[in-house]
Amino acid sequence: MHEWRLQIQDIIDAIDESIESHDDEALTLRALARRLGYSEFHTTRKFREVSGMQLRDYLQGRRLAFALKEVRDSDTTLLDIALAHGFSSHEAFTRAFKRTFGVTPSAYRKDPSPVVLRTKITAFDRYVLGMGEIGMEKSNDRIEQYFVTVPAHRFLHVRNYESNGYWDFWQKQAEIPGQDMATVCGFLDSVKGKLDDEGGAEAHAGGGQVMAYMSDPEGRLCAWGFPRVECHGARLPADWAGEVPPNLQIMDVDAGEYAVFEHGPFNYNQEMRTVEEKIETAMAAFENADNGWQFDTAHGKVIYLYFDPERFCKYIRPVRKA
Prior knowledge:
Layout: H1 2-20, H2 29-36, H3 40-51, H4 55-73, H5 78-84, H6 90-101, H7 105-110, E1 144-150, E2 153-160, H8 166-173, H9 181-190, E3 210-214, E4 229-237, E5 249-253, E6 256-263, H10 268-288, E7 293-295, E8 302-308, E9 312-321
Antiparallel strand pairs: 1-6, 2-4, 2-5, 3-4, 3-8, 6-9, 7-9, 8-9
GO molecular function: DNA-binding transcription factor activity; sequence-specific DNA binding
InterPro entries: Homeodomain-like_sf, HTH_AraC, HTH_AraC-typ_CS, MarA-like, Tscrpt_reg_AraC-type_HTH
Organism: Enteroscipio rubneri
């Protein structure tokens, strides 16, 4: 099953790459099946077995997610957007768009309220499957440490007081109506104006979404009595006044000084745990050093985790003079 998950993940990656490059030929069932070397029937059956959804439904959902952002952010005609994303006509695009999002493309362009987009799924993850690192040669990158001043901003997010770690966070969020991973990430992906948005649409990277940890503004602690509360959300400009999606909350974060602990590009499958340990060691050394600074854990302070293995993994932590 792990081998099948890995092959289906290859198809999932290929779908996003082909949508971005407008390569409709690569998005046909025949082309995707050929990529795996199996029949079209076998490919669709295995995709549903691994992902829990029909391949055609996932493909259309991703097409519409990319198309919605173009409707939201560009002046391209709706017909051109429809044709670029595999729809035969303006009418076919409008029907699919309204059926999925409850609003027509033209109405959404005038009033881009939050909707749930079909985010990219993860079929294969070594760590979720309990496989750990591959154990091959590790990078020798050191942790780069530097300071930045982060302007005042707003943080749109969900938070969990019981979780411990990324996947545990989403497992526990799935128990809360309307706060599961697909819904939260789908809403956040549709929000315009995210400070860290570089056009991606994944939970792990791009799309302007980040994991975060905070000392809760209301003074509550996590289940273990510690001040760290896990969150997932997006940073927005300080003057952002858009509609807050259902079941999400927003807070104002003051400007301040932050220490950055950054590891460069790395192989996710080979060394994610190692990179995490390196960063944690660097942060512990900073905390214990007599360097004139200390981590600021006051209520309302937020630690951000940026995770994109092709570029970096970095923690941005608020600090103050000791």
